[in-house]
Amino acid sequence: MARVFLCVLDSVGCGGAPDAVHYGNEGSNTLLHIAEACAAGRAEEGRSGPLKVPNLNAMGLGAAITLASGKAAPGLSAVPGGWWGAAEEISAGKDTQSGHWELAGVPVARDWHYFPRTVPAFPVDLMAELISRSGLPGTLANCHASGTEIIDQFGLEHIATGKPIVYTSADSVVQIAAHEGHFGLERLLDLCRIAADIFHPLNVGRIIARPFVGEAPGDFVRTTNRKDFAIAPPDGTICDRVAASGGAVHAVGKIGDIFAMKSISDVSKGGDDMALFDHVLAFTDKARPGDLIFANFIEFDSLWGHRRNVAGYARALEAFDARLPELTARLRPDDLLIITADHGNDPTWPGTDHTRERVPVLVTGPRVTARKLGIVPFTAVAQLTALHLSCR
Fold first, then answer.
1. Do β-strands 292-297 and 266-268 pair in parallel, antiparallel, or remain unpaired?
2. What is the tens place of the pLDDT at every residue in 46-97?
3. Which of 4, 7, 6 is nearest to 317 (CA)?
4. What angle do CA 13, 16, 22 make, to 5 degrees?
């Protein structure tokens, strides 16, 4: 009668990655630094005082931070009541795609293609092909950028000229922003499909459609119609194994996009992380024995990590934690809930990129008792899932 609920809190890292120095991230620690800022009164916008995540703490969050980094997070000293540990990545990237694939059991064998920090960042011949095949008057930006800032910078020119805003980041991505009304959502998605055909052969991991609305800088806002066009993962992910064993993989959030819908049974999306949490709750009634409910909660990363907003990140952690009892109370006797992350994004760290970190691995369920997992590879998450579901 077993089911697994696998929740990835996007970017909620806990420091300590032994190779962080090679990424310029030695000393980064998303959770520790948020907890320290809260305890010091430096995260008072919309909340106050120490970081309040009693449910995650009881599962072993504080213990996982200490295990991963050797440092104790203030206020997170509870004795773990479930299985707890920290996971370490071997894939070269510190991006969503690499992290999720490795959590699913398949490390990325070769590094992605990244774009240089030049202007333009993209090869001139490939951009000319994109413009020609899409019938565009041209493109804007063509550089590394923060998504919200680049829309404010080029939004008016985009509306006036019809040229989409094309940019990248430290990840292996081509991001294309366009106005839902003036440019059109379906036209943007078609454009991204053409871009995927052009850039995927270079081993660029994802083409990301970034639709937005608004009529002036400061008023522009990205909508929830984002879509990732990802290279399909190799065979052997936990999604493949669940499907081969007769179970269904219910994707919540952007999981379907990350895995290019390979072995995904259905997708549930929502306007924000709380809506995604509602979808996960719904599967406590709908999912059948042998099923995997695989969820990504993106706003920790997209709204707070990249924007270096410590208070916002703390609020998001507290909001997720406050809802956890709704989920644990509805788990059936043989269910397993696994909470982990795919990389770090320390909001106290310089820049706006992801940070190379270990991630917490917290496991609970009606039949789970306290157990230290130790430092494990990312792939251990897939192994735990496969064992619990008796996958092939």
1. unpaired
2. 999 999 999 999 999 999 999 999 999 999 999 999 999 999 999 998 999 9
3. 7
4. 100
